[in-house]
Amino acid sequence: MNIKHHLDEATLFSYVAGALGQGTALVVACHVSQCEYCRDRARQLEAIGGALLENNSLSPVSDNALLQVLERLDVRPQATAAAPAHAADSEVPGPLASYIGDSLDEVAWKRLVAGVWVYDLPAQGKGLTRLLRVAPGKAALPHSHRGSELTQLLRGSFIDEVGRFCPGDVADLDDRITHQPLVDSEHDCICLIATEFPLRYTTLLGKLAQPLFGF
Amino acid sequence: MQDKPPGDNVDNVVAMKVEATPEAQGNDWSAMLAELGQSRDRQLFIQLFRHFAPRIKGYIIRLGLTEATAEELTQETMLSLWRKAHLYNRDKAAASTWIYTLARNQSIDWMRKQKYPEYDLESWHRDEGEPLQESEAEQSIVSDRVALAIHQLPDNQAQVIYMSFYEGRTHSEIAERLSIPLGSVKSRIRLAAEKLKLVLGGDYEY
């Protein structure tokens, strides 16, 4: 994958620290699972966590606790639901596959308006976490954000004020950017989006359409 | 007792700056964890438990969880260490780094009742490529150096590190808490991360 758009260092840091909301953490995990460059950066940051752990103030653990753990070493963990089969070269990143399976074509899309479909993922938090499928030539309404908006491209491409985004790329935007993505691929563009808060549309039309889109 | 929100409490930031522990030297925990993955040797596990369990529990208590919960999650973390040790690759990370991610995930999963998305535990094992760490023996030294580097960070940078790692606050939450713009939170984090990564000895340029 020829990935050109990466995660902001501050975003990656907070993911590693365990300080992202569920939805944004999912998008970060998806990008990192596909991007070797960001994976290396994530591991570098994890070493900060390791150093904090190593140098943390100690809290005594009783020998009884050790005995309890030793007794459980041979107990097989309860069988969890088998993870869905996931091919290494799948266009569905591994972390997402545990939500939707391994195919973007079997998603139960819900049509919002002509040329726009969504599928909402169950994730805790105030913002939204959804798969968005947009037909070629369609543009999203101009909007800015309060808080962050993370978009991982899964299929097709779009272009906006920041650049052109292809599969594997992530758009890591904060509240300073107003943008209007336009789908410029031949086929539908599919991406995974997580916002921390509802979007802010910057035009009157957008404000009117907001309830319609459910953003 | 002052009743300040945790992120505003300078004592917490100061408490984070703990001194290096001299007894951490001497044992090559990464080699022992890798060996455990192969041999399933209970003696090794016990040694790892005695070293890491009090640290894991200390970390979890700092997250704000109760003693009893911290004890339970520490046991769960040590169990997952036993079960996943074969996935550990010492060329990729120090034992403490790998165990940190286990402890973090256990704690977050418990707090949220929803699984923290992981980018792929198996890739610790599967991934080929350049090792990130220089030498195993250096890792405890590196940990000490990071602790020292955090100690030397300006307070406002140490604070965002504390609020991220121990309070689990998002950028927006930190911005709100400190009444500063979101962009300032991000730049403080970037500055702090940059300095700490230098100390981690990577020849990475970002």
Write up what this structure looks like.
The complex is a heterodimer of chains A (215) and B (206). With 215 residues, chain A is of the alpha+beta class. Chain A has one domain: Jelly Rolls, CATH 2.60.120. Chain A contains six helices and eleven strands. In chain A, strands 1-2-3-10-5-8 form a six-stranded antiparallel beta sheet, with helices on one face. In chain A, helix 1 crosses helix 3. The two termini of chain A are 30 Å apart. The C terminus of chain A is likely disordered. The N and C termini of chain B lie far apart (43 Å). The longest helix of chain B has 21 residues. Chain B is mostly helical and 206 residues long. Chain B is globular, with a radius of gyration of 18 Å. Chain B folds into two domains: 104 residues, Orthogonal Bundle (Rna Polymerase Sigma Factor, Chain: A), CATH 1.10.1740.10; 73 residues, Arc Repressor Mutant, subunit A, CATH 1.10.10. Classes of the chains: A alpha+beta (215), B mainly alpha (206). At the A-B interface, helix 1, helix 2, helix 3, helix 4 and helix 5 of A face helix 3, helix 4, helix 5, helix 7 and helix 8 of B.
Task: Tell the overall outline of chain B.
Answer: globular
**Helicity range of chain B:** 55-70%
Which range does the strand content of chain A fall in? 15-25%
Specify the helix fraction band of chain A. 25-40%
Cα Rg of chain B: 18 Å
CATH class of chain A: Mainly Beta
